[in-house]
Design a protein that fits this description.
The chain contains 9 helices and 14 strands. Strand 3, helix 1 and strand 4 form a beta-alpha-beta unit. It is α/β, with parallel strands linked by helices. The structure holds zinc ion. The site of zinc ion has 5 residues, from loops.
């Protein structure tokens, strides 16, 4: 599978996913339709499926326009307010792109109905606003306990798994991580690397499970209480 980032709004990434063998294309969390259609057209790809990780408008705002323009089907979490949804996804369901199979897991915390899509054979996961590089989503609907457990399910994937979050938050997350865990050399090194990338305007994603286990304080938290303390500290942290 070929995966292309389409920047949207100030810091969203919409992921275009293309399978060369079947010629099929899907889009993950299209908050906006126009940049997605432009990128797909530039590449000669036709979008057949829309996959949403959660209902927030910056992830679903382009659903209806894309559906109208391409006839794509919309798959999203069962409980959510997903515009144009054709298929409701819950734990254990699957999405398919050609021969590639994505397994649905429920990862509540950021929203109650948040899902992630795990392409086990490809070692790829679309994680929405649950896990960010060196960080995690805010708790808008769920509890710290739910988010801690959800992050754990992603962090237990094979270390080489590439993770595709939906926002470029890495620099702010890295600064918080360095503040929260100043003795961690892997975090200090990654902060330097991320600063250089962002100075050059370069994307910092995808990340990997291995990198997150080493440098993500929320993944590294050893219990719910520690996670909850970190999450509220990050909410008020100004780098
Ligand atoms: Zn969100």
């Amino acid at each position: 599978m070929e995966i292309v980032s389409v920047p949207a709004f100030t810091d969203n990434y919409i992921w275009l996913v293309h399978d060369g063998e079947s010629g099929e294309t899907a889009v993950v969390d299209p908050g906006d339709a126009a940049p997605v259609l432009a990128e797909a057209q530039r590449r000669g790809w036709t979008i057949g499926q829309i996959w949403n990780t959660h209902w927030h408008p910056d992830h679903t705002g382009g659903n209806l326009a894309l559906k109208k323009a391409t006839g794509a089907t919309v798959s999203g979490p069962a409980g959510g307010r997903i515009p144009g949804r054709d298929a409701a996804l819950a734990e254990g369901d699957e999405v398919r792109l050609g021969d590639h199979v994505g397994r649905v897991i429920e990862v509540p915390g950021h929203t109650l109905d948040h899902i992630a899509l795990l392409f086990d054979d490809d070692r790829i996961a679309f994680v929405g606003d649950t896990l960010f590089a060196m960080g995690c989503g805010r708790l808008f609907e769920g509890t710290a306990a739910q988010m801690y457990s959800s992050l754990g399910r992603i962090a237990e994937l094979p270390p080489a798994t590439r993770l595709y979050p939906a926002h470029e938050y890495t620099l702010a997350n890295a600064r918080f991580a360095a503040h929260a865990d100043p003795a961690n050399r892997a975090i200090a090194e990654r902060l330097g690397a991320v600063e250089a990338l962002r100075q050059a305007g370069t994307i910092t994603l995808p990340t990997t499970v291995a990198q997150e286990r080493e440098t993500n304080p929320f993944v590294r938290a050893t219990n719910e209480e520690e996670f909850a303390r970190l999450r509220s500290a990050k909410d008020s942290f100004r780098s």
